[in-house]
Amino acid sequence: MSKIQQTSKSPSYNLATMPLMRGHYKVLIAGSMEQIIGAALSTVVGVMIPMIQLASATGFSSFMQGIMGAMALIGIAIGSTVIGYFADRDGYLGWFRACPLLIIAGSLLVLLFPTEPWILIGLFLAGFGVGGGYSLDSSYISEIMPDKWKIFMVGVAKGTCAVGFILAAVICWAILKGYPHAAIWNQMMWIIIAMGVVAFLLRLNFTQSPEWLMEKGKTQEAQAAARKLLGVNVTVPAPPASPVAAAKVSYLDMFKGRNLRRVILTGIPWACEGLGVYGFGVFLPVLVMALGIERGTETGIDKVMNSVEMTAVINFFILPGFALGLLLIKRINHIKMLAWGFIICALGLGMLLAAYCLHLPLWVSVAGFIIFEIFLNAGPHLITFILPSQVFPIEVRGTGSGIAAMLGKVGAVLGVFFMPMLLKWGGIVVLLWVSIGVQLLGALITIIFRPKNQTAQADVKTETK
């Protein structure tokens, strides 16, 4: 029986109202890879920095540590903006496949040429690829999912970054356990290369976004793309009366009027969240050692191994944080989740600060870290990723998501860059006070720039039921 005959006899579905199919999960997995890789990259860099300090005769200055920790994030910030803009104009598919190739190329540079200039170039290039994926992942997933599942599945995609944090920390620990030598620091990049290869292979049999094609008036191509992705007869909702012009809104227009409020609401809290996710994520092994909560009293590479082990334990709580957020995402207004998440994160860091200053038992410090990680990922880390696809209209969705992701990574870059500086200037106490202030700033901006009318508030509350 021919494919045409099979298609004609199979049931027909509407893309907006159909049940979840196997193809939806394939899109979810392929569209989540940059979330996993970005988290893994920050963890790997955080492990490499103390290893380089041990392997090198002179080590890195605190300034150079900050630059190395921030370089991938600079790449993410630029990549998310540049690729998001071109994807809106030219379509998602080409860039969706190119992003993992950029990640692989950058990682290979670090692996093959482990000197300072090439390390920085390689990390920037890998980050550029990850950033491009950030601007496309949520759009791809939200545009192919049924209306009932859009926001939840975008949240699940963001939650997969927990897999990257945990997996990278566990693999790094296992490598060091089997071969405890600081000189192998650059071999850790094999983790990122392998993930990049998997991402590229998952996207070989992909298509252009059906909704993007519909918005450009390419109805037949949209129908064919949806059927290829989902493997069933699918009717894509009718396009607008006239195709949306490419690059209809300029970058300058994105910073005016309602778009400016959207940019502030989606971008500034994402920047505040970036310090918690990446500032702490990259330097977590270093912070564990600064707080004195690593297991054991060893020195050298054994001390690094113990800090990586504690990092893996702390990173584990990212996963239940996302799980909690996904349970609440249909029940609680997303703006409230974002604001309260920031506030409770600040309380967790305050608990960590009190435990350090007052020499409280170890479990208090660990509990503070756990509260911080759970509510960071249940609130700000989850909601800041979801928000752009909710508040920006489709004709500027890639651009708006790219700008929001870029601002998020600017915050992450500043957090990562100044993390070792703050440790040098004022120690862990100053670092924690600054971090608490940033979390409270995120809550304040969220409250001030929240949607003012009921319709807009409903748009960021729950997905369509």
The CATH architecture category equals: Up-down Bundle
Query: How does the overall form come out from the CA principal axes?
Result: globular
- Oligomeric state of shown chains: single chain
CATH topology label: Growth Hormone, Chain: A
**CATH structural class:** Mainly Alpha
N→C terminal distance: 38 Å
Helix- and strand-based class? Answer: mainly alpha
Gyration radius over CA: 22 Å
Describe this structure in words.
This protein has 465 residues and is mainly α. The chain has a single domain (28-207, 255-459), classed as Growth Hormone, Chain: A. It has helices at residues 3-9, 22-31, 33-55, 62-90, 93-112, 116-144, 150-159, 161-178, 190-202, 210-215, 219-230, 257-291, 300-316, 318-328, 334-357, 362-378, 380-391, 397-448, 454-459; strands at residues 12-14, 233-235. Strands 1-2 form a two-stranded parallel ribbon. α2 packs antiparallel against α6 and α5 runs antiparallel to α6 (116-144). The relative contact order is 0.15. Mean pLDDT is 84; it is low at 1-7 and 242-247.
